[in-house]
Design a protein that fits this description.
nine-stranded mixed sheet, two-stranded antiparallel sheet, 11 strands
Length: 169
C-alpha cells in the first residue's frame, strides 16, 4: 500500500498543483443502459469508442464529453462494460480517475516529486490525447496523472486520437 505523504516528505521538492479532475472511467454492468443514462438523460455526447478488441469479447469502451466553450473534450467520462460475473473492484464502479496538470513541466516535476518520495508509479505513457502515469492512493484506487496535449493534436479526430497506440515514455 502506498505511503501517505505528509508535510514531512523525503524531498526538498514540492508537489505541483493540478488544474483539476480531467476524466473519470466507470466500470459498468450494462453499457447500453449506462449509455442511455449518461447520453440521453444527462446530456453527455458520445465522442468515440475503443477500436481495440476486448480479449473477453466485451463491447468496446465508450468515451463521452461535455462541452467547454462550445467545444467537445476528448473525454470527460468513459464507460467500460464488465463481464456478468464481474467483481474486479470489490463492487466499486470506479475504474480510475485522472488528475490534470497545467503544463508538461508541472507534470514532469510532479512525477519527479513522487519518485523522490518512493511512490510506486506505473504505465508512464504518451497516448493520443495525454501524457500519463498511474499510481494507487492509500485505498488502492487507481489515480492517473495527466498532461493533456494541445487541442490541435486531437480536436479534428477525437476517436482516432483516443485509439492511438500508447507509447512508453
Amino acid at each position: 500500500m502506498p505511503e501517505i505523504m505528509t508535510s514531512e516528505t523525503r524531498s526538498d521538492q514540492r508537489p505541483q498543483t493540478p488544474c483539476g479532475i480531467n476524466h473519470i472511467v466507470l466500470a459498468v454492468r450494462d453499457i447500453e443502459a449506462s449509455h442511455r443514462f449518461y447520453a440521453d438523460l444527462l446530456g453527455f455526447v458520445h465522442v468515440g469508442s475503443s477500436s481495440r478488441p476486448d480479449p473477453g469479447g466485451l463491447p468496446p469502451t465508450r468515451f463521452y464529453s461535455g462541452r467547454r466553450d462550445q467545444k467537445l473534450h476528448h473525454h470527460d467520462l468513459a464507460l467500460e462494460q464488465q463481464a456478468e460475473d464481474w467483481d474486479r473492484h470489490g463492487g466499486s464502479t470506479l475504474d480510475h480517475f485522472a488528475i490534470e496538470y497545467p503544463t508538461l513541466d508541472a507534470w514532469t516535476k510532479q512525477i519527479e516529486f513522487l519518485t523522490a518520495n518512493d511512490i510506486a508509479l506505473s504505465r508512464r505513457i504518451k497516448r493520443g490525447v495525454t501524457y500519463s502515469v498511474h499510481l494507487r492512493d492509500p485505498d488502492s484506487n487507481i489515480v492517473e496523472l495527466v498532461f493533456e496535449l494541445p487541442r490541435s493534436a486531437w480536436e479534428n479526430d477525437i476517436e482516432g486520437a483516443l485509439n492511438r497506440e500508447p507509447v512508453a515514455l
